[in-house]
Automatic annotation (TrEMBL):
GO terms for cellular component: cytosol. Homodimer; the beta-strands of each monomer intercalate to form a hydrophobic core, while the alpha-helices form wings that extend away from the core. It comes from the Bacteria. One of its GO terms (molecular function) is mRNA 5'-UTR binding. The lineage of its organism: Bacteria, Bacillati, Bacillota, Bacilli, Bacillales. SUPFAM superfamilies: CsrA-like. Belongs to the CsrA/RsmA family. This is Translational regulator CsrA. Gene3D superfamilies: Translational regulator CsrA. One of its GO terms (biological process) is mRNA catabolic process. It is found in: Cytoplasm. The gene is csrA.
Amino acid sequence: MLVVGRKPGEYVMINGNIMVMVVKSEDGHLRLAIDAPREVTIVRGELLEGKKEREGK
């Protein structure tokens, strides 16, 4: 796992075609913007965790 610090307006690129940008940061909360091709599936972590719990994993 890569951990990087970013400030609002800064971003990281993944695989040359996925951009993750910090658009807001205050009081320990972040707001991210993700720009990725349509074929890339993006799912929030809590939704994945909930699905695993419902499936009994």
